[in-house]
Amino acid sequence: MKKIRFGKKGAAAALALALTIPAVTPTFASSGDAKIDSVRFIGMEAPKKIDEMVKTYTNASMEVKYSNGEVKNFPLTYKRLFKSEDKVAINKGKLIPAGTPIDVNGDPIMDTSLEGKPTYYVSDAPDSNSLMKPINGQLYMVTHYEYQTIDAAGKSAYGIVPASMSLTTLDQDKKTGELTPKAVKKIDFSSVNGLWIPCNGSLSPWNTHLGSEEYEPDARTFESNSTSSVRAQVESFAKLYFGKAEKANPYFYGFIPEISVNKDGNASVEKHYSIGRFSHELMKMMPDNRTAFFGDDGSYTTMFMYVADKAKDLSAGTLYAAKFHQTGTENGGAGNLEWIKLGHASDKEIKDIIDSKVKFSDIFETSDVPKAGFKAIKQYSYGKTEYLKVKPGMEKAAAFLESRRYAALLGATSEFNKMEGVTLNEKDKKVYIAISDQSNGMTANSSDPVDDMKLPKIKSGVTYQLDLTAGQKDSNGQSIKSEYVASKMSGLIAGKDLLDTNGKAISDSYGNTADVNSVANTDNLSFSESLRTLFIGEDSGMHTNNFVWAYNVDTKELTRILSVPAGAEATGLAAVDNRRGHSYIMSNFQHPGDELEGKNITAVDKADLQAAMEKEIGIDRTGGVGYISGMPKLGDLQDNDQD
Length: 643
Known about the structure:
Blueprint: E1 30-31, E2 34-42, H1 50-53, E3 61-66, E4 71-75, E5 77-83, E6 87-91, E7 94-97, E8 110-111, E9 119-120, E10 126-131, E11 139-145, E12 164-172, E13 179-186, E14 202-203, E15 209-210, H2 219-224, H3 229-241, E16 256-261, E17 267-272, E18 280-285, E19 291-296, E20 299-301, E21 304-310, E22 313-328, E23 334-346, H4 347-355, H5 360-363, E24 364-367, E25 375-377, E26 386-390, H6 395-401, H7 403-409, E27 416-417, E28 419-425, E29 430-435, E30 462-469, E31 485-494, E32 522-528, E33 533-538, E34 547-552, E35 558-563, E36 569-579, E37 582-590, H8 606-616, E38 624-629
Antiparallel strand pairs: 1-2, 2-3, 3-4, 5-38, 6-7, 8-9, 10-11, 11-12, 12-13, 14-15, 15-16, 16-17, 18-19, 19-21, 20-27, 21-22, 22-23, 23-31, 24-26, 25-26, 28-29, 29-30, 30-31, 32-33, 33-34, 34-35, 36-37, 37-38
């Protein structure tokens, strides 16, 4: 996920790794007649030389201990499937780059920033991967292309170019598990007005891909300021996607798209408007197939929970927002969560409101100063204190089109900062959630309209755990119809900022401003039930090279298992415990080389590093999709996947 500039854009990188570990539990796999007792990752050092700093690689390994006392070590290696610039996507009979977006008519969107030299737009930011369970005997992977950093002329293209997803058909070696792209095609979003900044995503328990639309365009600014960057972005998007700027509507975007793949290998798209509109990082479903939690990325954001009316059906449900009641500051912080009901809606109800061409001014009255009947709030999309009142009869529109604003008006906490990845530990009934940068609203701020959060400032972030419980009631005393309601939140892994004795940020000789041997700016999270391991991908400007980490929730051992190119971000992390007897941890890297010029690097020659990045990958030009291989074949396992 691209860091919105609260100081920096996030530099990080990605990775991809595949583990051929049993999909049930490790005790079912064997070496001869011996069963597996335990597995653990043996970590790698941070890169030291330029040739290491420019590549995606691992020197990590996996140690397997068997019941007969035998211990084996299996080195890991990195395999790339394709880069976003590779012409591997079949579109209307022609090969185009995998990361090229298509317009409402299915045609590639062209970059005309260099006069007389039109070329394809190519996203340098592949993000989410969902490696789906076999469909009609075939493996498929959905991949996000989040945004484009620069155009052909070298100018910023962030937020002005429509985004895209691809569907890759994969071949799998039955013996080794190695994956090979067989065909790549672009997914058609014309039925839902296109796709806005798709960040991370997840695979639903019913084998659909749940995407995202991050950093929803602010409808108030769009309406009131015709020269704003918000207006420029949404109109540029509309012109490139629809062919005319007049189609621009901020309320088209900020939702969860669900991608289904049919038995014939074609994808269909449905946006879920009843889930609420905010800065969707990703949506993670709970085991009941009804309850979901989200990341809401940005500064001054809110924690949301959705409870669908029916299992495996996201077309209607109830949206809640959390109020944080702080209980401590140890290991980053802790608090109890109170849930405020925002409302119930169906997709059709909210889509009808959008199609009526509703505007921000139709939903809210505003005041520039404190005024009776108006409430002061502060939330991400506007970025400063505003005084609002919901117009009569517009409560449902407010709840589902301006979810964060409405939540703050009802008393929910809108002080979270850079709330990103979310994943589930089903056995322990815990959700893990990433706070990539614990600052801004999460620290004491007496000038804010409310100050629920007074947590320690940790710029390198904190990974939190949420305790899930049944029998919970909302703030009005009404029962919440879910057994998976988060009741408590506590720090699990806190980053370690590098500070001098006066508390001022300092860097080491590689330009790192956070401890290189600890997680910095936790972002992508994915949990393996089989391995009892939480995998963490970084989106860090505080680490020159970003890493992927493995954290065993039982032994508490934290291990670095992969390094991505300098300046890149680790994205698309997904632990997949079984695909035809093989396990994978998918991930990508995006915007390699980004913002290296601002780093204080003395351990190697920075100019040489930048030159090597440009030569080997290209700076802000492409991203990679891949995985780590090298794991042992651990027995002949029954394939529990369903076609």
